[in-house]
Amino acid sequence: MRMFLHQIRTEQKLYWRSRESAVFTFIFPLMLFVLLGSVYKGRYPGAPYYDKPAPQILLAALLAYGCAMVAFAGLAITLVIRREGSLLKRLRATPLPPLTFVASLLASTLVVFGIETIALFLLGRVVYGTPFPDRIGSIAGIVVIGGICFAAMGVGLSGFVRSAEGSSAVVNLIVLPMAFLTGSFGPTLHYPHVLRVIGEVLPLKYLVDLTNAVYLHGESLWSQPKAIGILAAWGAAGLVGAFFRFRWEPREG
Amino acid sequence: MPAIEVSGLRKAYGNLEAVRGVDFAIEEGEVFGLLGPNGAGKTTTVEILEGYRRRDAGEVRVLGHDPERPGPDFRERIGVVLQQSQLWPNLTVRETHAVFAGYYRAPRDVDEVIELVGLTEKRDARAKTLSGGQKRRLDLGVALVGDPELVFLDEPTTGFDPAARRAAWEMIRSLRSLGKTVLLTTHYLDEAEQLADRVAVLRDGVIVRVGTPRELTSSDLEVEIRYRRSGEEVVLRTTEPTRVLNELTADALARGEELEALEVRRPTLEDVYLGLVEEETEA
Predict the structure, then answer these.
(1) How many beta-carbon contacts under 8 Å exist across A and B?
(2) What is the pLDDT of residues A115-147, one digit of tens each?
(3) Do A93 and B75 count as a contact with CB atoms less than 8 A apart?
(4) How far apart are CA B169 and CA B194, in angstroms?
(5) B261 in helix, strand or coil?
(6) What CATH number is given for B4-217 in this structure?
(7) Which of A156, A160, B35, B191 is 20 to 30 Å apart from A107, CA to CA?
(8) Cα–Cα distance for residue pair A183/A65, rounded to 1 Å
(9) Residue A253 forms part of a structural domain
(10) Is A86 part of a structural domain of the chain?
């Protein structure tokens, strides 16, 4: 337990010290909220489901995007960089148990995503007058469930990325189209059918469903068992990938 | 009990036999050098001892543990400096040491270790701002912060300038005075000669010679006699230098000649080493 807390503190320090990860994964969703929010005004077409002010709809979508950035993109890139720099290998030679390491990395990721969530709601309130969520418990549930599933996928993905230099490009190549296709930058109602079908299979779509249900419609998290189930399945796929592909030692060099 | 015991160690990667039957033992408090060219199997051997790799065959004991199935205190008692590794670029020297100290039950005082590796002036500098030599000292510092009994140093000075190497040598000597057992790999002869109590020369996955640096140079190796005759250099190698010299000088005297540039030389460790390593290319 002592080592778990020690490692969470270390991971937090590492995250906020690294301007690259903090700017890229933490600030980016907030920045998009400000940018997109200044473009989309008034009401979305698509009532009654989207019968809310545009900034509120955007907030729900970007909350899911924030999860993909922090838990998936950020974690995958961090792990690849640490693996290729032999840092993971070096840690292996210390008494830090691998399970404690993984657990603290996950916990630290959830802390960052939690702060991201609070920051999004505060920003929305200050800039666009969006309301705070009614269902705090369900929002917390989204942070935990979304964070764990996307973190598992991030760890899985890191096993498939070979070089540290390429990691950020590869991860972006996945996250950006996924965010676009699944409505993380705004509803996809007006998208062509083909794009929407592709979006239907991607995990981020179901996290957006959850944030929409909880934040826009005030429903409980548990009213969406299908979305939770599909997210969990993606998370499990990430774990399988991690199981077969995760390495402590560099793949190159 | 020896700190490390290895017998019949073998390891292959696919068709490449990296280690082909290695035996040695390292006593507690000893500085042991594994010397050999690149690709001789040094790192493979060390990484098996550190617990990173599984062996194909042979017996290995490190501090009484089998590194493939180490007991809980194994990693408390070893310190590792990898051939290449980078620590967190955005943590300072002191923070990095403190992070590692947190992984051990009974770590040494962080500032003391920083002093030991000569980074006191850089304690608040972030790792990314350190020079190559300073980064290597940081590697050594975090390897020592857990107060290990046994320290593995895999090519600790490769790529150093001469001044940085001498500083690193001083540090490694200080490990001996702390009573640590050290396993050092290097492809620099002078480094092994300077630091190691005993040296094993590894070539092609087998140990071709073990001994103190002095033993290696004074064993059955031939003495070299050089001189010049009518401008051309003549080199004789012999295990009976007295007789050969006597004959040579008697012959020269009889002809009234001077043996120009006469030189009698015992082999240096470098000669021994190159001799051992070159046998490979001749074979």
Answers:
(1) 57
(2) 999 999 999 999 999 999 999 999 999 999 999
(3) yes
(4) 8
(5) strand
(6) 3.40.50.300
(7) A160
(8) 9
(9) no
(10) yes
Max CA separation in chain B (angstroms) = 78
By DSSP bridging, strand B198-203 and strand B206-211 are antiparallel
Q: Where are the alpha helices (DSSP H) in A159-218?
A: 164-181, 193-201, 203-211
A95 — contact with chain B (CB < 8 Å)?
yes
Report the C-alpha gap between B77 and B72 in whole angstroms: 10
From the centroid of its chain, how far is CA B196?
A: 7
- pLDDT for residue A231 is more than 70: yes
Where exactly are the structural domains of chain B? 4-217, 219-282
CA distance linking residue A78 with residue A94, whole number of Å: 20
Whole-number Å distance between alpha carbons of A92 and A83 = 11
Mean pLDDT of chain A: 92
Give the closest-approach CA distance of B71 to chain A in angstroms: 11
Number of domains in chain A: 1
pLDDT range class, residue A186, cuts 50, 70, 90: confident
A230 to each of A46, A162, A202, B54, how far by Cα in Å? 25, 28, 9, 39
Inspect the interface and report whether the beta carbons of A13 and B91 lie closer than 8 Å.
Answer: yes
Nearest to B85 among A14, A17, A89 (CB): A89
The one-letter amino acid at B192: A
Residue A20's domain comprises 2-245
Buried b (16+ CB within 10 A) or exposed e, B243-254: ebbeebeeebee
Does B39 have pLDDT greater than 60? yes
Q: Which residue has the tokens 């975090």?
A: B142
Q: Is pLDDT of A48 > 80?
A: no
pLDDT of residue A47 exceeding 80: no
Q: What is the mean pLDDT of residues A75-103?
A: 94
Pairwise CA distance, residues A59 & A49, whole Å: 15
Residue A84 has pLDDT above 90, yes or no: yes
Chain B residues within 8 A of A95 when measuring between CB atoms: 72, 75-76, 103-105, 146
The whole-number pLDDT of residue B182 equals 96
